[in-house]
Write a structure and sequence with these properties.
248 residues, globular, 9 strands, alpha/beta, disordered N terminus, seven-stranded mixed sheet, 44% helix, two-stranded parallel sheet
Length: 248
């Protein structure tokens, strides 16, 4: 039997998770996330929706996600139809119904981040909270080459785009309404959409902060790091042109 969902007006939190070729961990991760949301002392009284925004999977991810959504009305499945992380994330944010959006990864599902970020937003007045893997108090257990890639990429953002933070990609929480204009202003998809979103938010004066996170991945990345480099460099050049030269 499907679990009843509150009316659209009553959804407080929208959890947006892009998924790509995740058949091995999708069902277990979603089941565990729902369990944690229902039992976490700071989250269990919140109404929420979980948006799985699928992008071009070639395995059984879509079938599994469709079945999960059919069994629980709090789940929604979006299909992008092409392997494009940024486009999937953008669509999930645009179609979210909650006042606060939480962007997560299926191999993380960090409800402790949700609770800490919500406090920053609701009690301290921040509009955007970024979970930074690069803070000294974070515990990043990814392979060394992936940790190095994060620092190199964000170093490039600081040099080329005058970014003042330590991380842009990964866990985020924000008030949806004031950040929709930032989403609409973004010009790239693929891997750098999430980064452009944070950089543009900072440049617009959005009140934001970073908090530490623990990163323990459940599986190897679904796309190879070095295969993404050409797209990253191409979109980096586009961002420099649009933001620093065309001033858009």
């Amino acid at each position: 039997m499907a679990v009843s969902n509150p009316s659209d007006r009553d959804v407080e939190l929208s959890i947006v998770i892009p998924v790509y070729n995740e058949q091995e961990i999708l069902e277990s991760s979603v089941t565990e996330l729902l369990h944690q949301l229902e039992h976490h002392s700071k989250l269990r009284d919140r109404s929420f929706e979980l948006i799985l925004t699928e992008n071009g999977s070639t395995d059984d991810t879509v079938e599994i996600a469709r079945r999960l959504a059919a069994d629980d009305d709090r789940l929604r499945l979006l299909n992008t139809g092409e392997p494009n992380y940024g486009l999937a994330l953008r669509r999930g944010i645009k179609q979210a119904r909650g006042d606060i959006v939480l962007c997560d990864e299926i191999d993380l599902c960090d409800t402790d981040f949700y609770a800490r970020a919500l406090r920053k937003i609701e009690a301290e007045g921040y509009e955007l909270v970024v979970g930074s893997k690069a803070l000294s108090s974070s515990r990043d257990q990814r392979p060394v080459y992936r940790r190095a890639a994060t620092r190199v990429l964000n170093g490039m953002f600081r040099v080329l785009l005058d970014f003042h933070g330590t991380d842009t990609h990964g866990l985020k929480a924000f008030r949806r309404r004031p950040l929709l204009e930032v989403v609409d202003a973004c010009v790239v998809n693929q891997d750098l959409f999430a980064s452009e979103f944070v950089i543009r938010a900072e440049r617009r004066g959005i009140r934001m902060c970073e908090i530490p996170v623990d990163v323990v991945e459940k599986r190897k990345p679904s796309t190879h790091l070095f295969e993404r480099v050409p797209h990253v460099l191409k979109n980096m050049g586009r961002l420099v042109w649009v933001i620093r030269i065309a001033n858009r």
